[in-house]
Amino acid sequence: xxxxxxxxxxxxxxxxxxxxxxxxxxLCSGRDVLLAAPTGGGKSLVxxxxxxIRSGIAxxxxxxxxxxxxxxxxxxxxxxxxxxLNSTMNPGEQDDLVWAIRHNHIDLLYLxxxxxVQPSVIGFLHSFDISLFAVDEAHCISQWGNFFRPEYSQLGxxxxxxxxxxxxxxxxxxxxxxxxxxxxxxxLENSLILKNSFDRSNINLQIAQKRKAKQQILYxxxxxxxxxxxxxxxxxxxxTEEISSWLRQLGLPSLSYHAAMQEQDKQNNHQTFIxxxxxxxxxxxAYGMGIDIPHVRFVIHLDLPNSPExxxxxxxxxxxxxxxxxxxxxxxxxxxxxxxxxxxxxxLSAEKEVHHLVNLFQILEGRGCRRQQLLSHFDESxxxxxxxxxxxxxxxxxxxxxxxxKMLSLIYHTKGLEPFALLIQILLGKKTKAVSAxxxxxxxxxxxxxxxxxxQWKSVIRHLIAFKYLSIGESNIFTVQINxxxxxxxxxxxxxxIPSEHYYPILKxxxxxx
Length: 514
Ligand code: ADP
Hints:
single chain, seven-stranded parallel beta sheet, WH_DNA-bd_sf, DNA_helicase_ATP-dep_RecQ
């Protein structure tokens, strides 16, 4: 058996995946590698294998302490000499570790980026033979990514300090800007860039309009994932607790998880979630990076994720065992507006946040297969999946050009100062206080949009926002403007085609058979 095979079997597997082998070969020949593969794509096996094949100590950095300690425990169980250098170690433990390093008793050394860049640590490592550096979750290095960690940006000094040691950067993102900023920051000019398919075909995608969201969730839990383990993502901490206690009242085993919880409670809930199959974890995105639980069967988004990458990462926590898994994202116009408002108000990163969000909106509102939409964001082109909600629906679409022209003209006439809810009332010819307050009965478009329902008007607005036929004001006060793209619609040069609305069914609490 050759060394590569031997190492693979020590790590508990029988076959490398094609990209893993390519990355390992490159590292073993001393070349830097940038490996972009989705969560669950088997990235850890690459640096673990190469680290065991090459002589010397492989140094691995990751932003998440829990992830590192989990990996080290697992490796130790397999009889592999891996250690985790962290700040919670007492001086005695640190001495033991140094002793073990000096006596060649360590193959893989995990530490945090903060620790690694300390001059004393760099100096210490200099006296040993280092086989490679692995920078996990390398998108943390990029200001452009979703998880920027300033201390990561100092990792560029590794190349200067150890010019002959190969570096592998690993990321679950393929966003071009992020990739080039990783390359630049880590000084990986001639690295081999390997990109795995981001298609996780065992994960089913459903995206639907929100209507009585709690009852929609009940339908999902009852009909699509009865008794199964899954995660429900919400934006606010309060909401995770509310939803989780509501589920418990209904007799469904549920826990919550968010950043403001006590460390011990987080740990307990995480552990229970792993051990007790059938538990529903209601969490903010704090329950995220590095969660590797094979039997998560579903992920529900009760609120919008921040970007396509975040959406992808979050749904990617389902089906990590390769078995079928289901996802459901519920949203509506209101969610889009709120998310946009929040993004705009980010003091340092408004432009970036809005950019990510608009990319997400385009996936939600785009025509055709959901999986195609999502993967095209990652520059991958695949055939229609035939099992997302779009592929399974009647695939009907409507030409909404005239409706869009009416909406855009009304926005123009009202100077973009009125909320969408009022604009819809005007088009439907409603006689409400809000309508009379702005004397909208006198507007030429008053009552001229009765051919559509309120729900359809909302879908027109969502589409116009997603594809930038409307510009939302860049301040906290609601304003909306027409722009160059809207003019082209108004002049009839651009057609607006919108897929039919899809509502996910509901199940009332009293219908739930306990
Ligand atoms: P990532 O770091 O890319 O998120 P992991 O390294 O955690 O992914 O791997 C995800 C899962 O795939 C793990 O359960 C791992 O054991 C499994 N895996 C990785 N490589 C292989 C392989 N070559 N053969 C079988 N299973 C693998």
